[in-house]
């Protein structure tokens, strides 16, 4: 092969070191370095994939209840005609569904038990085009919400906490009271529980209730829907589409996408991912330091070889290239092995974790405690590519100092005692 001799010799040193024919200790340290890089890369891929999986599970459960984008009046008043606003929003090709809503905080009481909740007025038929929860249970649960029937669908956790079931009556205490000669009297409405829902997201299951939009308008004394919910083709484009709609719908309405509505959760997940990335990258950094020690010992062991190459006409730059090839090869092998191991575990974690649970007789995610009883995983190229790049860069940087030392070896000094 017509390869540069620096590449051929560097690769030969790498294979010899791995085989341990010249120095067993150097071979051991070299193996540890590659193993450390592989484990660090694999750990990064597995942990970030699991975090992505949990993020996707929570996000999907969240978006089964709430819309991708909400559009509402700046002053909080009822919309003059929600159909006009919905049609204008649908002019954006990213929008695939629209539904009216009224949302307000209220107290839900049964006997002496009183709970705060968000009461959302919806039109079941329109809502089914926007949220998966209503689409999946429209016929069995949400279809029972009829105008004037005064029915309510409670979150499962809220219903359990209050001890109510389908057919029971609860009382809604609406904000703002009625002025009477005796003073301000709260506005109360007795309403029948027609069903419950379980979205798998505690915040919504314990603090959200649905009634028909017409009943909500009468209860909260508004002329009609106060906003429109929108569903998009691509949930990840919500922020971009929201900015587009804010410009096209005019200044009289506010536009909020789901990432802004749930900003605290969204930002907390991103910060946690960054911190885990930094912490686990330290494993690769430690392995790179091991690579430095390996190359320093290799340079010391190969001083006679270096001197002979120099007497044959090799330049300091070529000597440096030889050992850079050796270190880079170890880094590439370790990185590729780590990527292979990480992806193997990440794509099969739904098989590996249950096997470990059966072997150890434990349950990492008990169904009685956690809403997610299986370990999810979602490997993404946006995580894997930076991991590979950082690992290769660290391995390359680790070769610079030992390679520079090799290029400074003086032939006469190295061969004096040979």
Task: Characterise the protein shown here.
With 418 residues, the protein is α+β, with helices and mostly antiparallel strands. The chain has helices at residues 5-19, 24-63, 82-90, 124-127, 132-137, 156-162, 202-205, 213-220, 238-248, 258-261, 263-301, 303-311, 316-347, 349-360, 381-407, 411-415, and strands spanning 69-73, 95-110, 113-122, 151-155, 169-180, 183-197, 208-212, 227-232, 253-257. The chain has a six-stranded mixed barrel. Helix 2 (24-63) packs antiparallel against helix 11 (263-301) and helix 11 packs parallel to helix 15 (381-407).
Summarize this structure as a short list of keywords or feature phrases.
single chain, 418 residues, six-stranded mixed barrel, elongated
Helix content: 55-70%
Strand percent estimate: 15-25%
What is the N-to-C order of secondary-structure elements (H for helix, E for strand)? HHEHEEHHEHEEHEHEHEHHHHHHH
Q: In terms of quaternary structure, what is this?
A: single chain
């Amino acid at each position: 092969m017509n390869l540069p001799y620096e590449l051929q010799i560097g690769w030969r040193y790498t294979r010899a070191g791995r085989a341990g024919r010249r120095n067993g200790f150097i071979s051991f340290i070299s193996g540890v370095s590659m193993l450390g890089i592989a484990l660090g890369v694999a750990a990064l891929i597995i942990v970030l994939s699991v975090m992505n999986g949990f993020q996707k599970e929570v996000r999907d459960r969240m978006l089964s209840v709430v819309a991708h984008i909400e559009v509402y009046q700046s002053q909080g008043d009822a919309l003059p005609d929600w159909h006009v606003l919905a049609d204008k929003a649908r002019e954006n090709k990213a929008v695939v569904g629209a539904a009216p809503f009224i949302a307000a905080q209220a107290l839900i009481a049964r006997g002496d038990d009183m709970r705060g909740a968000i009461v959302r007025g919806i039109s079941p038929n329109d809502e089914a085009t926007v949220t998966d929860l209503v689409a999946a249970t429209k016929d069995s649960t949400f279809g029972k919400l009829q105008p004037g029937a005064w029915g309510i669908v409670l979150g499962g956790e809220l219903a359990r906490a209050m001890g109510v079931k389908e057919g029971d009556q609860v009382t809604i205490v609406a904000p703002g009271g009625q002025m009477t000669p005796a003073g301000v009297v709260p506005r109360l409405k007795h309403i029948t529980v027609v069903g419950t829902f379980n979205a798998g997201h505690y915040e919504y299951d314990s603090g959200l209730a649905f009634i028909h939009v017409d009943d909500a308008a009468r209860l909260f004394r508004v002329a009609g829907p106060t906003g429109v919910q929108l569903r998009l083709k691509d949930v990840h484009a919500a922020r971009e589409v929201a900015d587009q709609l804010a410009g096209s719908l005019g200044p009289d309405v506010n536009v909020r996408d789901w990432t802004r509505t749930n900003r605290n959760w969204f930002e907390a997940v991103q910060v946690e991912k960054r911190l885990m990335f930094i912490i686990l990258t330290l494993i690769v950094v430690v392995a790179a330091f091991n690579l430095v020690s390996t190359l320093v010992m290799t340079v010391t062991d190969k001083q006679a070889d270096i001197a002979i190459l120099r007497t044959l006409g090799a330049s300091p730059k070529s000597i440096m290239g030889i050992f850079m090839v050796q270190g880079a090869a170890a880094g590439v092998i370790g990185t590729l092995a780590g990527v292979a191991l990480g992806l193997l575990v990440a794509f099969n974690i739904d098989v590996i974790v249950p096997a470990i649970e059966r072997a150890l007789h434990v349950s990492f995610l008990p169904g009685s405690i956690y809403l997610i009883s299986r370990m999810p995983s979602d490997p993404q190229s946006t995580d894997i590519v930076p991991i590979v790049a950082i690992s290769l860069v660290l391995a390359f940087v680790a070769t610079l100092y030992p390679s520079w030392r090799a290029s400074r070896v003086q032939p006469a000094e190295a061969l004096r005692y040979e």
